[in-house]
Amino acid sequence: xxxxxxxxxxxxxxxxxxxxxxxxxxxxxxxxxxxxxxxxxxxxxxxxxxxxxxxxxxxxxxxxxxxxxxxxxxxxxxxxxxxxxxxxxxxxxxxxxxxxxxxxxxxxxxxxxxxxxxxxxxxxxxxxxxxxxxxxxxxxxxxxxxxxxxxxxxxxxxxxxxxxxxxxxxxxxxxxxxxxxxxxxxxxxxxxxxxxxxxxxxxxxxxxxxxxxxxxxxxxxxxxxxxxxxxxxxxxxxxxxxxxxxxxxxxxxxxxxxxxxxxxxxxxxxxxxxxxxxxxxxxxxxxxxxxxxxxxxxxxxxxxxxxxxxxxxxxxxxxxxxxxxxxxxxxxxxxxxxxxxxxxxxxxxxxxxxxxxxxxxxxxxxxxxxxxxxxxxxxxxxxxxxxxxxxxxxxxxxxxxxxxxxxxxxxxxxxxxxxxxxxxxxxxxxxxxxxxxxxxxxxxxxxxxxxxxxxxxxxxxxxxxxxxxxxxxxxxxxxxxxxxxxxxxxxxxxxxxxxxxxxxxxxxxxxxxxxxxxxxxxxxxxxxxxxxxxxxxxxxxxxxxxxxxxxxxxxx
Length: 556
What we know:
Blueprint: E1 3-5, E2 17-21, E3 29-34, H1 38-49, E4 55-60, H2 64-77, E5 81-84, H3 91-100, E6 104-110, H4 116-123, E7 128-134, H5 137-151, E8 156-161, H6 166-178, E9 183-186, H7 193-200, E10 206-210, E11 227-230, H8 235-246, E12 251-252, E13 255-259, H9 274-280, E14 285-288, H10 294-301, E15 304-305, E16 307-311, H11 317-326, H12 340-350, E17 355-362, E18 367-374, E19 377-384, E20 390-396, H13 411-421, E21 426-433, E22 438-445, E23 448-455, E24 461-468, H14 477-489, H15 498-508, E25 513-520, E26 525-532, E27 535-542, E28 548-555
Parallel strand pairs: 3-16, 4-5, 4-6, 6-7, 8-9, 8-10, 10-11, 12-15, 13-14, 13-16
Antiparallel strand pairs: 1-20, 2-3, 17-18, 18-19, 19-20, 21-22, 22-23, 23-24, 25-26, 26-27, 27-28
Helix pairs in contact: 2-5, 2-6, 2-9, 6-8, 6-9, 8-10
């Protein structure tokens, strides 16, 4: 999907996170580097890695290839990588250049994707501009290779498919920077003969071919000297092979976790500037779309890891948490604290004047995925479900005034979705609300009334509220009177058992699975989280009376 990042500023809201904590009973620290946009993520990386720097590397935030090739050069210069737009520089990037005290930048670019306007804007900050550029990605990578060789003799190179192997380039970026190993970009149509000719005049010990035959055929790389292929069955296993090859020490200072671009190639942007920071710490980058490969888990299990850092939010959240679990670290920010109603309020502040099309909870990544529309433009918004911070705002160029059909779901389809959510329920009514672009329905089942809202744009369940029309089957008024009497005498004596509490919850959600259960001593309450099908149920019951106090249903 063709999307462009937007720099949407929201007064009074904090959009980035660079926080860490160390637990007394754990040896591994956890940290997050999450910016509102790729540009601010790069700034956060720079802040962590450099107190000051006279030099900075500038690349186009939409040019993944340029940024990845720049990593080994940036390491030689001990310089952060900062991102710009084609025709402008983000204010946060300018501020970071000033904070660092930069007086010299290198623009790494292909195809003139950075305009003279940007170059002049940098010069206006009294910063000297140098350029390492090429007419295309292949020429650009060759010219970076030559610049690196001028500073330090090149003995090893990494060869990557610059069109289909960008996730492999992310994996090799840190080792390339550590070992002064330029990244050479090729494709099935272009073996990059300029780089081959240059290497043939050097004493190259290894040409690491990164990726399998489907990504890089033997024919494409046949002319590269002293070839050694590093590959796995997919991008995640290739990532594991790379980190196994280049990080053999038992002790690892840090593991950086970023998205692998499996769901969308554009998601790799968070990793653009992390390679050089990882190299400074002699640490690997693990890529994931949510689930770690077994080979990645094996690497984690066999290492003593001092720190785990999540770079960017979203799809890598589960992998980040899985690594912490493997190292027995208590996970921060893993539970949902922001309700659906609160998430919608945040959306209204993030894109003022917009209408919410979709807002649903993504349990795996602990975030709300949303779509809003304003002035016939659709924006995709991700919200951290723990803190309420905006992870990302993007304009969806595929949906606009010409092709947006707001009411995509028919009445019959809406009824079908409702009855799937409440099996064997009796549908009392289902009507379309044009103002909110929603279907509103009421279903009765087992003396319980459910009010349901469905988004008419794509059929997602927005909300389910339940009104219990009868006393709870597990609760009796006489028990309540007795329990209240006992409570006045001594609360601790009247607390129901854990087994009883769980039974009450599961009777509310037959066939569900309790995934979280805890006792709140202060409030004398049991709190549970149950998963059944595509729904998540949050239930709070009185530990004294057994009465259900709160009942919330979200679609996951």
